[in-house]
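Can you please make up a protein's amino acid sequence together with its fold in token form to help me picture the idea?
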Amino acid sequence: MEKSFRIKFILLSGAIFFILPFFVAAASFGYGHEEDFFIDSDYDYLEREDVSATIRYVGSNAYFYIEDDWWDDLEIIERNEINHSLGELSQEFDKTIHPVLTATYGGENNPGIDGDYRVSILLHQMEEGIAGYFRTMDGYRKLQAPRSNEKEMVYLSVDYINHGIIKSYLAHEFTHLISFNQKEQRIGEEEDIWLNELRAEYSATLLGYDEEYKESNLQERAQRFVSSPSDSVTEWKGNSRDYGVINIFAQYLVEHYGIGILSESMASPYVGIASINYFLTQQDIEKDFAQVFTDWTITVLWNNCELGEEFCFKEEPLSYIRTVPSLIFLPSTQESRLSLIYAVKEWSGHWYKIIGGNKGLKVEFESLSGTDFVIPYLVEKSDKIESINYLELGSDHKGMIDLPYFGENGQSLYIIPSIQQKMSNFSASEPFARFSLDISTFENGEEEIEEENNGEVKPISEMTANELRVKIREIMAQLQILLTELAKLKGEITSTDIPSDFSFNRNLEFGISGIDVKYLQMVLNSDPDTKLIDSGIGSSGQETSLFGSLTQSAVIKFQEKYSSEILIPWNLSVGNGFVGKKTREKLNFVLES
């Protein structure tokens, strides 16, 4: 977390200052050195503006200061534990964090504004959920920034001092210190905050701290991303959603383009998106940032290398990550027409899945804000993507997707609209842009029939052969529903209808449909610990073929009940509702037993 500061030069009338060159003698402090520090009251537990702190450990590359008020309240045994933890953290900083990050991104200002080769690390009481921060103003003289501590320094919360994850937090904040030197002090440009945070977020992975996934920074960020995947990459508020999306995007960038996309963009004379495009051009990669972002939005939806290497994560556990699209369900027994309006922000992913209908499908897209959209759409059948297409909008900002045999082919349609226009100067509150989806279904050949009759319904005796075929399909669809309801009333559909030779052989997730979803619900309902619901649709004997929120919740219960076989092998502690390999293996075992 970085706290920015912009220098303001003020001309004072009636006084002329001559700033003479001066040299700062190299400072050197030892254990027990006391000092007063300005801190950020927004992050402090008690909203203080300054604290007194003492050096409790000295490493080769850092001083570790601890807030005095907090330290004084500790018992002797607690102080000994903290001294031990500081020793380990200092060793990690000297042997891993400092050398690896400076070799990758360049160095901090050294000896720096304080004339000391060591970085100062201040641990004080912070608000719950705040792990650390960095203040750019500390790199300026008090003449320019009166509340500057005039040190190369970062701040960490005392709450994590005895936790291994503090290594990741220190690496994160130290990356900010490096970026400040490499961008603001070296080339005189302030890095876009989203990219500054992206590099800092990836540091834990770069240093190997995320290899043990359980309780790692990556695990926490991945869980945040899955719960709020539509957060903007470039709008930065500093909340947990921002960190989730930026981390997963960083993982994608490095896996597909190497660490150079972060290090070379850091060394470039540009900032933000321009620096990423500079790297891609230098490497003769025939894509720009916008195309890379679009590939990422497809990846986190489907995440399957069969689509192409650019559309998947190869490394576990991210090879299992998937967003849950917003589901748009069309009834199969009648014509449907929906008009939906959505609002999105720049550089954010949004995923919509259209299923059902049993008819032709027409989707009319319109930008209501006059904004250009990038709109990839995927057509799925039998759990496989048949095609990846891109909807082009006309000068009226409208476009149409027309799938005549959508329902008859049992297809699903995924739409991923995003805005990719703004390139710099992002704020913490970017404006929304709106678009509409007008979705309609039709019987193949039906549009011509309506046109001939000006929308009036003909008597059967006057219908052509084509019109009669359309009418027969409508009647057959209604008949099938009535037969199904009759079978339920007669008790012919029960939870024991799973064929003896059936097994779960495809991944299942929210929004998907099929007979195997119904069998999944039957298995879950057979166990009191994992059943969907006590009564009503979805309960035992009233299972459906649609994977909805009740099914997802029941799958999570199933995964957590058998966590030793499903979750622990992937270093997971909570279920995600996605029926993947391990979950299917356990379901098939339950079926056989």
Observations:
- The two ends are 52 Å apart (CA to CA).
- The first strand starts at residue 2 and ends at 3.
- The CA atoms of residues 333 and 474 lie 7 Å apart.
